[in-house]
Amino acid sequence: MTTILDRRRQAPSPRRGPGVVHRLVSTDHKNIGILYCVSAFAFFLVGGSLAEVMRLELMEPSRQIVSNEAYNTLFTIHGTVMIFLFVAPFATGLANYLIPLQVGVNEAGTALSTGLLGLGAASGLTLGIVRKAREVCWTVVGFTLLIRHGLTARAVLADRELTAPRG
Measured on CA atoms in the order 134, 135, 141, 145, is the torsion positive or negative? Predict the structure, then answer.
């Protein structure tokens, strides 16, 4: 007589790292993509709160929540946050998550880039709040164009000295 033992094999539970630290130092493209998307969503909430303040300002004609200059600063920072800190990182996160799956790569990059995104965002938002946001944003655009077209800082300073008003 044969005895049948019911030994069900349990699937091994997936090994996960210690949580947040594992995600921050991982080289797995999925973790990096998720970090980009989560940080982009956080900046989406920041940009949405700025938009909500602008909507409150425009709700009634006589209501004055912020000054005209502060409203212009909010508008500029809102646009900068939504384009450079939400749309671009979210697209990067999706690309980081999906493209290695399509290509068949297991590890792609490090999570350092998401940390640099946070550092750059913090410094940019601080500059935008402390200084006039219009000046900060146009300065960044100007230097980006200078770098793209190969002009050097010496040429820019020389041009600034030539065109500076005397007085």
Answer: positive
pLDDT for 16-33, tens place per residue?
556 777 777 777 888 888
Global confidence as pTM: 0.65
Burial class (CB in 10 A: 0-12, 13-18, 19+), 96: buried
Angle value at C-alpha 84, between 76 and 131, nearest 5 degrees: 40
Amino acid in position 29: H
Residue 140 lies in a domain: no
Domain count, the chain: 1
Domain membership flag for residue 116 = yes
> Distance between CA atoms of 18 and 56, rounded to whole angstroms?
43
Kindly state whether residue 60 falls inside one of the protein's structural domains: yes
Structural domain including 94 reads 26-131
Could you tell me if 105 and 49 are in contact, meaning their C-beta atoms sit under 8 angstroms apart?
no
pLDDT, position 162? 47
Under DSSP, is residue 28 helix (H, G, I), strand (E, B) or coil? Answer: strand
Whether 85 is in a domain gets the answer yes
Q: Of 86, 69, 83, which Cα lies nearest the Cα of 134?
A: 69
The closest of 137, 155, 32 to 84, measured between CA atoms, is 137
